[in-house]
Amino acid sequence: MTVLTPQKIKVRTTFDRDQFVTDCRSALAADRSHKLVREVVARAVADPAAILKALGEPSRAALQTLYRSDELTVLNIIWGPNMVLLPHDHRMWAVIGIYSGREDNIFWRRPHGENGKLEAVGAKALSEGDAEPLGHNIIHSVINPIPRLTAAIHVYGGDFFAAERSEWEPETLSERRFDPEQLIRRFEEANCVAALARQSGSTSLSPKPQSMI
């Protein structure tokens, strides 16, 4: 496998899924942090039209696995209109690259002396073309604040589906174990809500808070 240094990462005029994964793996081999992977993602989302041409125009909420190993997971995530995800952690670094729509992140922390509960400490809005790294210990919740689909490439520094991690209840903010099967169901629930909104001719229907990503 070719080791990818910053000087060897080239700007591409087209997006090739297999080459993108190869570039991410090479970046990880050169630097175990998210630094070089973030550069690969940033170069990809700098040309959103190329990603849309390669992966297809999003038509429904979905979580698509582009690559999975013990060391790296690459996902194509389509958030449903107004989709909301509960506070959650990853316990590995991540890079989020938006290629259509918008994603709002609220960041949380565990206060000293509180038994598993959280407090909000910041927020950041990500738009088309943004590539944002998240550290190993970050806790965040996610909102798609617009009445249409948002599409993003997510790269994780580990096996996203196998890792033990947590999410927090929406009302009490108490900690519970993450359930990956429930996560998949949440995307289907978002599609059902969107279908009902289309049938009623309304964009005001919002799904209930979802499980984590």
Explain this structure to me?
The chain is α+β, with helices and mostly antiparallel strands and 213 residues long. It has a domain at 58-200: Jelly Rolls (Sandwich), CATH 2.60.120.10. It has helices at residues 17-30, 35-45, 48-55, 180-200, and strands spanning 62-68, 73-79, 84-89, 94-100, 102-109, 119-127, 131-134, 139-143, 150-156, 166-168, 175-177. It has a 5-stranded antiparallel beta sheet with strand order 1-2-9-4-7, sandwiched between helices. Helix 1 (17-30) runs antiparallel to helix 2 (35-45). The two termini are 30 Å apart.
Features:
4 helices, single chain, Jelly Rolls, five-stranded antiparallel sheet, 213 residues, four-stranded antiparallel sheet
SSE map:
Blueprint: H1 17-30, H2 35-45, H3 48-55, E1 62-68, E2 73-79, E3 84-89, E4 94-100, E5 102-109, E6 119-127, E7 131-134, E8 139-143, E9 150-156, E10 166-168, E11 175-177, H4 180-200
Antiparallel strand pairs: 1-2, 2-9, 3-8, 4-7, 4-9, 5-6, 5-8, 10-11
Helix pairs in contact: 1-2
Helix content: 25-40%
Give the name of the CATH superfamily of one domain.
Answer: Jelly Rolls
Say what the CATH topology of one domain is. Answer: Jelly Rolls
Q: How many E-type strands?
A: 11
